[in-house]
């Protein structure tokens, strides 16, 4: 990694932390500004916009990134690659908005405490998230660390500024407060778009030996965006469902709160690792487009090494400061055993490894294999979570077994894709791989 890439990686980490801090501030300040019912409605809105935001449109970002990187590698038009995916992203947006409308009667009356304006905010934020994801996909595909980090920073800082303004202004309508969340998303989309327009990076033209690669018309995987949307949504299910089930099954509210805080603490390495995946996908797509098998494998190994490094930091943090953090920062009333915390970090390491394999399969156009692996993991998760075992023990086991299932499924699919007939590592062999699944 060059010096510029290292500074860009640091900027990505800072931007990611800002986004996380802004989300925490948005939910936390609502508890001080509003009555309990309205504060709960804001928390529900936060959950809804995250499901309809990153949970769905991360797929759009990844597909745009893949197609942009593929276009750059082959010296083709980035604009055409982006437009092709944007049309399908618009269909994904329509589907998300229709789902929101369908759930409106259930959401507004109960979960949103009768505030129909919160549903409007959710719809606006969903549209802005689609725009933000499209822009970030282009920036990642162009390998623009700085622009991507600027988009992250704009989201975090913008949201913090708007939320802080609402705090200083005093009592505000709950809908106007909720709009500060969407405003942060809009800042990210705007800043990212400006960075993409000003980037104007010249396309990389294939060398004389890449003539066969130039015959590839598209990176394939038609219908891949819906499969990828299912996969990214399931990643959020696997990462977060345990808290809901444990809270429902446990009669000890203090232990349930400690588990929720412990899982959040254990997931921090995964949260910081997320932007790394975006640029990992770019590097893998470029290597795949150029039929550089050794570089592809080296990039996967490097991604795994980074995941292990993040995981090691997580293990050290939990072992040394986990108990203090849960007690002082999260205000838990009962301790969470060190073994439980370590096991939760272990499942996080496995999920980061799954993210690396996820990027490798997407780079090869194996969208359906990715979705199938995450679906298998989700099935295992639900089966173990709902077993008669003690709730916390079941949740810890479910996290580990689900992550193992995803990793094994993706590793098998990746090994199969590398031995597909015709995929010999030559440019001609790359044509078959890049054709993807149809």
How does the SSE layout of this entry go?
Blueprint: H1 3-33, H2 36-52, H3 54-73, H4 78-111, H5 116-141, H6 145-169, H7 174-199, H8 224-249, H9 253-266, H10 268-289, H11 293-329, H12 338-363, H13 367-385, H14 391-418, H15 427-434
Question: What does it look like?
Answer:
It is a single chain. The protein has helices at residues 3-33, 36-52, 54-73, 78-111, 116-141, 145-169, 174-199, 224-249, 253-266, 268-289, 293-329, 338-363, 367-385, 391-418, 427-434. By secondary structure, the protein is mostly helical. It has 2 domains: 1-206, no CATH class; 222-438, no CATH class. It starts with a helix and ends with a helix. Mean pLDDT is 81; it is low at 201-218 and 419-438.
**SSE pattern:** HHHHHHHHHHHHHHH
Would you identify the regions where 5 or more consecutive residues have pLDDT less than 50? 201-218, 419-438
Rg value: 22 Å
Total number of beta strands: 0
Multimeric status of the protein: single chain
Q: Biggest sheet, in brief?
A: none
User: In percent terms, what proportion of residues is strand?
Assistant: under 5%
């Amino acid at each position: 990694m060059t010096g510029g890439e290292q500074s860009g990686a640091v900027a990505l980490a800072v931007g990611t932390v800002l986004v996380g801090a802004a989300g925490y501030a948005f939910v936390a300040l609502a508890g001080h500004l509003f009555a309990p019912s309205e504060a709960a409605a804001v928390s529900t809105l936060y959950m809804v916009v995250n499901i309809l935001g990153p949970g769905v449109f991360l797929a759009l970002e990844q597909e745009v990134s893949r197609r942009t990187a593929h276009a750059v590698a082959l010296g083709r038009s980035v604009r055409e690659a982006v437009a092709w995916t944007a049309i399908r992203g618009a269909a994904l947006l329509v589907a998300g908005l229709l789902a929101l409308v369908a759930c409106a009667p259930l959401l507004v009356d109960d979960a949103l405490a009768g505030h129909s304006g919160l549903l409007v905010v959710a719809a606006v934020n969903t549209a802005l998230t689609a725009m933000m994801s499209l822009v970030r996909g282009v920036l990642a595909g162009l390998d623009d660390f700085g622009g991507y980090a600027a988009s992250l920073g704009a989201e975090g800082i913008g949201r913090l500024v708007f939320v802080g303004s609402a705090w200083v202004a005093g009592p505000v309508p709950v809908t106007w407060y909720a709009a500060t969340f969407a405003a942060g998303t809009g800042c990210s989309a705007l800043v990212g778009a400006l960075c993409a327009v000003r980037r104007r990076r010249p396309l990389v033209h294939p060398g004389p030996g890449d003539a066969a690669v130039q015959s590839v018309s598209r990176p394939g995987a038609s219908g891949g965006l819906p499969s990828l949307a299912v996969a990214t949504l399931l990643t959020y299910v696997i990462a977060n469902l345990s808290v809901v089930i444990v809270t429902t099954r446990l009669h000890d509210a203090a232990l349930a709160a400690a588990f929720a805080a412990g899982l959040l603490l254990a997931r921090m390495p995964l949260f910081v690792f997320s932007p790394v995946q975006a640029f990992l996908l770019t590097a893998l797509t470029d290597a795949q487009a150029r039929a550089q098998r050794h570089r592809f494998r080296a990039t996967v190994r490097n991604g795994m090494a980074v995941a292990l490094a993040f995981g090691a930091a997580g293990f050290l943090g939990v072992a040394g400061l986990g108990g203090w953090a849960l007690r002082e920062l999260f205000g838990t009333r009962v301790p969470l055993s060190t073994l439980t915390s370590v096991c939760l970090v272990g499942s996080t390491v496995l999920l980061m490894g799954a993210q690396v394999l996820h990027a490798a399969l997407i780079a090869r156009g194996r969208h359906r294999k990715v979705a199938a692996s995450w679906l298998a993991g989700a099935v295992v998760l639900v089966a173990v979570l709902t077993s008669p075992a003690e709730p916390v023990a079941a949740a810890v086991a479910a996290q580990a077994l689900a992550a193992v299932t995803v990793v094994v499924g993706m590793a098998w699919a990746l090994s199969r894709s590398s031995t597909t007939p015709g995929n010999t590592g030559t440019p001609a062999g790359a044509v078959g791989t890049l054709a993807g699944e149809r």
